[in-house]
Amino acid sequence: MSVELNDLRDKIDEIDQSILSLITKRLELVAQVGEVKSLHGVPIYDPKRESSLLAKRRLDAEQAGISPNLIEDIFRRLMRESYANENGKGFKKIYNGQGSIVIVGGNGQMGRLFNRLFILSGYDVKILGSKNMHQAKEIVANAAAVIITVPINKTVDIINQLPELPNDCILTDFTSIKQIPLQTMLKKHPGPVVGLHPMFGPDVPNLAKQIIVYCDGRQAEKYQWLIEQMKIWGATLYPISASEHDKCMSFIQALRHFTSFTYGVNLQQEHANLEQLIALSSPIYRLELMMVGRLFAQDPQLYADIIMSSKQNIELIKHYYHRFGDMVKLIEQGDKEQFINYFNQVTQWFGDYAQRFIKESQSLLKLANDNRT
């Protein structure tokens, strides 16, 4: 059996080498695609092309008697790598005017990410930070755009410290709350103003499929080139009012981070055996534990600022606290009928999204299981 098994494994190794060779050739072609896209200003992410390619490959797989899901998994991973390869070829510069991009806080992680993207697009980028703030007037004198990317608790003060900007200079910020920074920028600068919120961390390899929210401030026609530039990088730009944005962020960020924080504190204070939890976890619980652990691997000041950034966040968390208490009473009373009633109400509220989320989560669960050692 050993001889027969080794012979079969050798043949599999040969096929694997062929696969590696084909992937290398594919990535070489992708690099050429990136150069063409860069020349003509085509975004690195084309949702229609991706959808069409996956549909064709799934059909090919069915005709070949192979699992379409397997082939889709392989090609999605290939495409993620392809976007990263295209990203390194540079981008078309949308802005045709004069002036530099000034990133206030550009030495931070998010600042460095956008610094690289602007440089890849042919812009002159200047960094303004605590060490050269005394030169701010000189640095922003010919700025086409000034981007504020500093901690939440410093954003308003930094905006107010800015010197007078050129009339057509775009003033924007990357803060995860929008109403107060946007109001401050509108008071500070009479020219074009827009609030931006990159909905991702600085560790992303590229902006393909990433979302950047933008909240209109003033003179949209003059900041439109910045929006278009970010689309070229592959991002999806989502317009929303500052008030609606902050309301959504209370759920997406503040409440979610608070529940993860509280769960982590509870695990630690209950002296849970983390190694055993990981060993015994199902894929779904492993994912949940990952998200909690991910929070505690990052900057505590950042999450404190996000959670405590507004009274709206605090009120929402208090509502959650009271509902949590109500649910505790329900299970203490053993009221299974009311539990099922609440469950069905929420199921109805989710509607078709419930089944959609089951489908979308399946690939995540497979990945969590694959990563188990």
UniProtKB/TrEMBL annotation:
Keywords: Amino-acid biosynthesis, Aromatic amino acid biosynthesis, Cytoplasm, Isomerase, Multifunctional enzyme, NAD, Oxidoreductase, Tyrosine biosynthesis. Pathway: Metabolic intermediate biosynthesis; prephenate biosynthesis; prephenate from chorismate: step 1/1; Amino-acid biosynthesis; L-tyrosine biosynthesis; (4-hydroxyphenyl)pyruvate from prephenate (NAD(+) route): step 1/1. Residues 1-90 form the Chorismate mutase domain. Residues 99-361 form the Prephenate/arogenate dehydrogenase domain. One of its GO terms (cellular component) is cytoplasm. It is found in: Cytoplasm. It comes from the Bacteria. GO terms for molecular function: chorismate mutase activity; NAD+ binding; prephenate dehydrogenase (NAD+) activity; prephenate dehydrogenase (NADP+) activity. It holds the Pfam family CM_2. GO terms for biological process: chorismate metabolic process; tyrosine biosynthetic process. In the C-terminal section; belongs to the prephenate/arogenate dehydrogenase family. This is T-protein. The lineage of its organism: Bacteria, Pseudomonadati, Pseudomonadota, Gammaproteobacteria, Orbales.
